[in-house]
Amino acid sequence: MRPRGRCLASVLAVTLAVPPAGVRWQPERPLQGSLVVVTVRPDSLPRPAPVTALLGGMAGGEPLHFEATAAGVGWWALAPVPLSTADTLDVSVTVERDSATTDTVVTRVPVTERTFHSERLHPPPEYRHPPDSSVVARLAAESEQVAVVFRQTHATPRLWREGFVRPVPGKINSAFGARRAFGEGIEGRHRGVDLAAALGHPVLATNRGVVALVADQYYGGLTVLIDHGAGLVTGYEHLSSAAVSVGDTVARGSVVGKVGATGRATGPHLHWAAFYGRVAVDPLQLLTLTQP
Q: Is the domain of 142 the same as that of 87?
């Protein structure tokens, strides 16, 4: 990939229909709230002129970070499928034809609707009512903290090379995307998975990355966010203690904290989350994620 500054007056943008040979993706019909591995073969893209560079891409409102495939015959990147995606995801790829021409190649990826279940939870009393003005202000500040991490990850190079591992070995108590009701009708969507674990059990970093946030948050309790680079962030919530600090580089499988029940939790467990930029995706998919 060769991103470059561009003179707008010299760029001709063209949107093209793409044959399957030019842009491919796996899985073929991704679920809502998942990641897609997109590969681009420059020699198979539509003409009129050969591709000299790949300048970038977009999907789900987030930039894509292309790099050369292991075989060196094209480029690959992760792309997010937001939970709100109806039936197709538009993936755009911008390529350079020569010093004066770029094309924006758009592919429509078919998306499969995810099955969501509903659950009613009974958190501690202080979380069963709509938040008051002071809590609303706190939530806004915490949201901005997290948003900074989601923006910064797009400036971090990809730090992981090996496969992802589970942060704790426990069973799934609550699945990704579940519709949730708390106390007096407060509703939301579960943007992670809840894994069963005993109080104090070690929580592992699922892959190499840089610790981007360690904070006591209203809903998530003691929370650690790890920036894995190239748009990918994982989160570990409701911890009883943290073993890392912001700026630490952590290895896959290293301890980042211990299981707790802080924040809006009904008991000890780990809330494990994954994000591509601002888009929440099912963290369990990371366990089968491989680069081309």
A: no
Question: For the chain, how many structural domains are there in total?
Answer: 2
252 in the same domain as 184: yes
17, 19, 39, 53 from 107: Cα distances, Å: 7, 9, 11, 18
Angle at the Cα of 63 from the Cα atoms of 157 and 94, rounded to 5 degrees: 105
User: Taking 90 as the threshold, does the pLDDT of residue 46 lie above it?
Assistant: no
Q: What is the pLDDT of residues 152-194, one digit of tens each?
A: 999 999 999 999 999 999 999 877 877 666 655 556 677 889 9
Burial grade of 208 (CB within 10 A; 0-12, 13-18, 19 or more) = buried
φ, ψ for residue 5 (rounded to 5)? -65, 145
- pTM for the whole thing? 0.87
Q: For residue range 86-116, what is the model confidence (pLDDT) as tens digits? A: 999 999 988 887 767 788 888 999 999 888 7
The residue segments making up the domain with residue 42 are 8-110
Q: What is the CATH number of the domain that holds 180?
A: 2.70.70.10
